[in-house]
Amino acid sequence: MSLPLNMSPSTDDKYRAARYNMVEQQVRPWSLGDEQVLELIGTLRREEFVPDGLQDMAFMDIQLPLLGDDGEEAIANGHCMLPPRVEARVLQDLKLQAHENVLEIGTGSGYMAALMSRLAKQVTSLEIEPALVELARANLHRAQIKNVDVVLEDGSNAQAIGGSYDVIVLSGSVYEVPAALLDKLKEGGRLIAFVGTEPMMRTTVYTRTQGRLTISQPWDTVVARLKGFAEAPRFKF
């Protein structure tokens, strides 16, 4: 529907339309069929989780830098939001339940934690960068989301992570998932991570069933690295 020539859309209308187009043109075509996830992606205000001045870029199919003036450097340092279709696909694959407690490693802007908070009981999100901790906390407070705790912590240090979780999400790529982190999964729990190196990484889902881990790798992508995790050993001649 077009607007009369003497009228312009409100900011709310503009962003509502942008979220709708994001879902229909990017997210849904990327093997997304979970209507609950699609509705959530389409209604949670992604534009409110990006730095000032980048609101119009919030719906683009890119990794969006969160810190500093150099976007490439920010992404290289893992200071970015993942593309919307990647976040949506992760959310669909996790099949979160209302009673579940979630651990996220790599908070970023808090957007992924906000999505998961709508489906799970509690989200604890660990972020190694102090400026991103402040950003995420402010974003979640503004969105009136109360079941997410953002903690300044190096998520690669599994010994510093207390308790066990139903779901663990690594919101960035790693060379491999540490065994000590997999040990934090409860029975029936799932861990999802982007594993490998460029030019292609495997989205890997670990599921603990009767004390054993099963592994599936349903799709490929390339996303920024998480800080602190070990890289591939270098060959010596």
From TrEMBL:
GO terms for cellular component: cytoplasm. InterPro entries: PCMT, SAM-dependent_MTases_sf. GO terms for molecular function: protein-L-isoaspartate (D-aspartate) O-methyltransferase activity. Coiled coil: none annotated. Gene3D superfamilies: Vaccinia Virus protein VP39. It holds the Pfam family PCMT. Belongs to the methyltransferase superfamily. L-isoaspartyl/D-aspartyl protein methyltransferase family. This is Protein-L-isoaspartate O-methyltransferase. It comes from Comamonas koreensis. The lineage of its organism: Bacteria, Pseudomonadati, Pseudomonadota, Betaproteobacteria, Burkholderiales.
